[in-house]
Write a structure and sequence with these properties.
By secondary structure, this protein is of the alpha+beta class. It contains nine helices and eight strands. The strands form two sheets. Strands 4-3-2-1-5 form a five-stranded antiparallel sheet. The chain has a three-stranded antiparallel sheet with strand order 6-8-7, covered by helices on one side.
Length: 265
């Protein structure tokens, strides 16, 4: 018994030394990792890359360095690596099942980097979310919605969804519909709509504005309006034309469609 206690007492300095050394390595390692991540963010390479590549690279470097630090600490504590590898191998199936979602998101992030369906700053609609892309990390993509909500979407979901990128093209087309009474002159209505579009400085002349009769009922005529503009001007043109054409109709005495009254007799 006394010999056992002596052996335990003899081990205490060694164990304490390893623990202290492991803590020092942890603290210093975390400081070094933060410094390296900052250097990566400010590096010349990052300045030449797109936003989503930057965030993905920073996330990859941070996770990789932390994994190396964890392995180093295990080695300092004297845990045999062979034992750890054996345990991981025996638990491989369970770990694989548990990490299916994470691995899918990681693969999705890599695919997003390769195919680039969108960039940071683009307005995108995908996986039930519509917003401006803020960052693309290893596992998730962050969106900021128009009402200022921050939404995090798994990369795996994005790669399996239809992605609508509203910011990818230089020009966009504004499509509007208007209706009036069937007794109105269709030529007059078209002229009013074209004048409203031609008077808007943000509406492009080429492709030319479009206004034509596109449908109707026994009480109304329906007209389709199409105007091309720069992508950044889309919503300004949308609301400006809606207001301008509505006011033009009112100022010219254009009648609204008749309301059909159904008799109960």
């Amino acid at each position: 018994m006394e010999k056992m206690l002596e052996n335990l007492l003899a081990l205490i300095p060694t164990v304490c030394g390893k623990i202290v050394l492991a803590l020092l390595v942890l603290i210093i390692g975390r400081i070094i990792i933060k410094a390296i991540v900052k250097l990566v963010k400010k590096g010349k390479f990052m300045n030449k890359t797109e936003g989503e590549v930057q965030s993905f690279t920073v996330s990859f470097v941070s996770i990789g360095l932390n994994v190396l630090l964890f392995i180093s600490i295990i080695g300092i504590l004297g845990v045999p690596m062979a034992s750890i590898i054996t345990v991981l191998a025996s638990a491989g199936v369970a770990v694989g099942l548990a990490l299916q979602g994470a691995l899918s998101n990681l693969a999705g992030g890599i695919m997003l980097m390769l195919f680039k369906p969108f960039h940071v700053g683009n307005y995108v609609e995908a996986s039930g979310v519509a917003g401006v892309v803020q960052e693309v990390t290893l596992f998730y993509t962050v969106f900021l919605t128009l009402d200022n909500k921050r939404v995090t979407v798994p990369n795996g979901s994005l790669m399996n969804a239809n992605v609508v990128n509203y910011s990818s093209e230089e020009l966009r087309r504004v499509d509007l519909t208007f209706s009036c009474a069937k007794s109105e002159d269709s030529g007059k209505i078209q002229s009013l709509m074209l004048d409203a579009m031609n008077n808007n400085e943000k509406v492009l002349k080429d492709p030319a504005p479009f206004a034509r009769l596109s449908g109707g009922t026994d009480t109304s005529m329906v007209f389709t309006v199409r105007a091309w503009c720069k992508n950044a001007d889309y919503w300004d043109v949308y609301f400006d034309l809606t207001e301008a054409i509505t006011n033009s109709f009112a100022g010219s005495g254009v009648k609204a469609p008749a309301i059909r009254v159904v008799s109960n007799d």
